[in-house]
## 1
Amino acid sequence: MTRVAITGGAGFLGSHLCERLLADGVEVVCVDNFVTGRPENVEHLLASPRFRLVNRDVTEYLHVPGPVDAVLHFASPASPVDYYRLPVETLLVGSAGTHNALGLARAKGARFLLASTSEAYGDPKVHPQPESYWGNVNPVGPRSMYDEAKRYAEALTMAYRNSRGVDTGIVRIFNTYGPRMRADDGRAIPTFISQALRGEGITVAGDGSQTRSVCYVDDLIEGIVRLLWSDLPGPVNIGNPHELSILDTARLVRRLCGSDAPITFIPRPVDDPTVRQPDITLAHQRLGWTPKVAVDDGLARTIEWFSDQSVGAGQRRAA
Ligand code: NAD
Ligand code: UDP
């Protein structure tokens, strides 16, 4: 049986990956210290004899007994609010954590997949961003703990590939949304949905003209799984090229929530990227992958999940 270890497996993306790989018949060891993830994200998987949850900080020695065919390194704070709060932890999980995860892959003869990010392109001067673009990152700016941790992690991954013979892959993930995002993680979509559902002001940063291209989680996971079982080294962009301004995203969320919440303009964070859109030619040509879920549909599914969560919380409070 195929067996994988997923660091950060109790997070938003990690939990969807655990679920998908279990459904594919894979045995999954999920390693997480719950610094930004939640045990509840994988609670429903605990009944499977092919699933194991290990509470461990991957910046410490990473030991997984038994055979491992692939190591997926997804552990890292990922939202700006989280990595501003945890700057040193973010740099350590990108450096020491990546080193340990690569060491595990090497010891087991496993394929290694690094969850990198579109933030590797910083505030891009090339649009859309192909993998060949080197980026425009401020190494000492407020986002540097995340951007540079991921750029270092990519470099370490390539060093292990070239000098230690580890079969590696790098995925550059663009903004992804869906069920199991935390309402308080500060990212635009969960924030806007929570605000719209509560009828509170929807906080748009700056004038909202900055853009992001958002991908529904199921599409992203499909692209990641295809890259995992390929022999492509990457980096490979995975994301949905459908680009939207943040103001239009806020308006769309409000409409889909059936809300009349006002839009409130707040100061724009320093070094907030102005545009972002993946060039997914490589993923399309080499993995046969393209995203399928339209933004209205993906947002509607996400809003439904958030609504169910708030109804459930209300019922728990009333009980
Ligand atoms: P998340 O915060 O929900 O998940 C990250 C998980 O890593 C959490 O469960 C957290 O507890 C765990 N973790 C962090 N540090 C750890 C440590 N030292 N030891 C063990 N576990 C640790 O974030 P996410 O959105 O699911 O992101 C997952 C990965 O994908 C991250 O590496 C992130 O950088 C990358 N990524 C995500 C997006 C996105 O849009 N969600 C975009 C680009 C890249
Ligand atoms: N943003 C916003 N209001 C919020 C949270 C975020 O307008 O309440 C903006 C943010 O400044 C950025 C965009 O939405 O321009 C996407 O932010 P997010 O944190 O979701 O992702 P990232 O900046 O990491 O791409």
## 2
Amino acid sequence: NSVFEHILQASEDPILGVTVAYNKDPSPVKLNLGVGAYRTEEGKPLVLNVVRRAEQMLVNDKSRVKEYLPIVGLADFNKLSAKLILGADSPAIQENRVTTVQCLSGTGSLKIGAEFLYRHYNQHTILIPKPTWGNHARIFALSGIAVTSYRYYDPATRGLNFEGLLEDLGSAPSGAIVLLHACAHNPTGVDPTPQQWEKIRQLMRSKALLPFFDSAYQGFASGNLDTDAHSVRIFVADGGECLVAQSYAKNMGLYGERVGALSIVCRTPDVAGRVESQLKLVIRPMYSNPPIHGASIVARILKDSTMYQEWTVELKAMADRIISMRQKLFDALRNKGTPGDWSHIIKQIGMFTFTGLNRNQVSFMTEEYHIYMTSDGRISMAGLSSKTVPHLADAIHAAVT
Ligand code: PMP
């Protein structure tokens, strides 16, 4: 008898399980709009030209060796990542009160932040938006932090429930951690306006709530890296403290390379130094030090102004293609006379559209049209192309009529 005999079969991850089901479907018209990964007009994964070039340079550089990185990762990568999210002229960087550690993409950055907060922050409560990316609750809960939610999405308007959000943050325990999507909220595609961000900032600072930004889509929402960092930067500009988890999965297309960074903005350089020393103690027993390849690609690109420029052009092209898919899907539904107001498709931003389709409509579309998406009705606009828009529009039309 196996010593593991008692183990029960676990269910598939609700997001990654969509791809498992998709792979099993033999239909030639099948369409995977589940996972948040960019696809070209031809439906293919994309490696950016600038990434290929950086990799070539790394391979050709015979002085490069495979030694371990320090516990906190590649120094250049960390410095440049902080600069990318906080801005080149950020006073926090100039005053040396930011500590940045290289982590395993966005997920790993959130996890290191969660473990650090559990050990070194006295308020073990985090508020996450409702709804949010499916992994948030588990990441924090498994680090011993109590997870509650704040109202975010309003199904009636398919927009932000701003009043509800302010009420819930207003009644949070003083000092609680608040998870904020820096831009392109997943799964809803609904972001606060700059005016609303300012109100959120004032409220959070007045209650000493600690902001933990998840920045998984910088540049992907608007096509502009600075615009998409606005929310984070207003919280740093007020001199207060915050955490930021960055991912290069989407904006550099480095998904499987697992490149990300956690920055903790502190009040003083002295605190930042001590925070970093403790981050090392979190990381060392988990995986000792992070992998070298992906971070080296990012550092090359961020360091070289020509390559950086090239990256912003390729990034904008991805963002623009997604935005054009929104318009195409909206137009297709309008032309078919599909009942309902579909303007949220063009109003929402980032990789996803929160369609408002319910669980039954989603399973209908999977069964009859071989279209795969998460059961909450979220579709990845990045997985769509001009060729597949009509098929999706047909399926949505049939599902709602
Ligand atoms: N946060 C959000 C909101 C996300 O959508 C994602 C990716 N789906 C992540 C974090 C982390 O992704 P990764 O670990 O691949 O960087």
